[in-house]
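Researcher: Next entry: serine-type D-Ala-D-Ala carboxypeptidase (Thermoclostridium stercorarium subsp. leptospartum DSM 9219).
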Amino acid sequence: MIKKAVVWVLLFALLLVPANPGVFAVEEETGLQNENRPLTGNENAPLLENIPFEIKAKSALLMCANTGEIIFEMNSDERRPIASITKIMTMLLVMEAIAQNKISLNDVVVVSEHAAGMGGSQVYLAPGEEFTVHDLLKAVAVHSANDASVALAEHVAGSEGVFVSMMNEKAKELGMINTNFLDCSGLTDEGHYSTARDIAIMSRELITKYPQIIEYTTIKHDTFRNGTFDLDNTNHLIGKYRGITGLKTGFTDAAGYCLAATASRDGLDLISVILGAESMSLRFSETTKILDYGFSNYEILKIERKDAIAGNVNIKKGLTLTVPVAYEDNKSVLLKRGQRDKVKEEIRLPEYINAPVSIGDRAGEMVLLLENKEILNIPLVATEEVEKATWIKLFLRLMVHWFSLARR
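Model: Predicted structure:
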């Protein structure tokens, strides 16, 4: 019986080969597997060449935080002292340390003499006082406390000096090529600088990677030291501007009045940066003007289909004929208002891909088109593994299939 089965299987396999040689071919062929065509990305050039209104500041920038696109800019690469805007990087590293379980919000921090000796905006920490990371972070985000910033820096890195090195390393990692930090509070003017563009970059990293920081930056009023010290947010747009979520003010005589503001409406997240305004009221009014322009003229289209199946792709030289493909990630595209209905969607699948196939291998793309121009694509990836076909694997598979039919 077994000998007859083997004979029938071999005859069956031989009959199949000329009928569909591509299914069992094991030599290399030119296919479409793992296309390495670069994905279309958002350019770093501003969407608008000319700012549509006057901005009363030394530098300014408006960024879409969802995509990283710059809508417009003014002197955005001009190096300037940034005062307490520095604390955005301080908060970023604190949140990163929390996420990495190096510290926790409940950790108790003992205030050092160095931290207690900071001037400027402060919560008047005394050497030996103890506060949680949560309380000190609140003092930094709301009250812009320099002493609390140093206390947190020392808790994360052991000393402010080491922490500042970490700040510069993170700036380099993020591509902030025109930034140099000398302290964690922004009290230093000479040699301590950044730009509107770099500030937007680190602001985006903070709010997108650690959105829980918004729980602190949106506090309008709170207290410190068991209710004995009032914390009032230095960002006067909190509670006044619709959708405002932060982020940080700054002022020294050299820096002028500065504000990195974040706001969100209908899924569109914007970052506005104002550096070197001549008055406190101007930094808030100019920021309002910038954000109003962004929300009035732009909207966000989100494609949230990560892991959803988009179709099936044919397999050559594999043990299975097709493989399901899914959206690799969620993505967003920034649109001018009125363009949404003009956007067209295409699913582009290759004619086939060659085995072997691993989970996550590129196998097509979803493309958004606006007036026949590609504005976004999301890679489609294989969701199953497919082994490469060999004669022995095909033979064994046919035997199993034949015996299963014989038992019926």
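Model: Note for the record: The CA atoms of residues 93 and 167 lie 7 Å apart.
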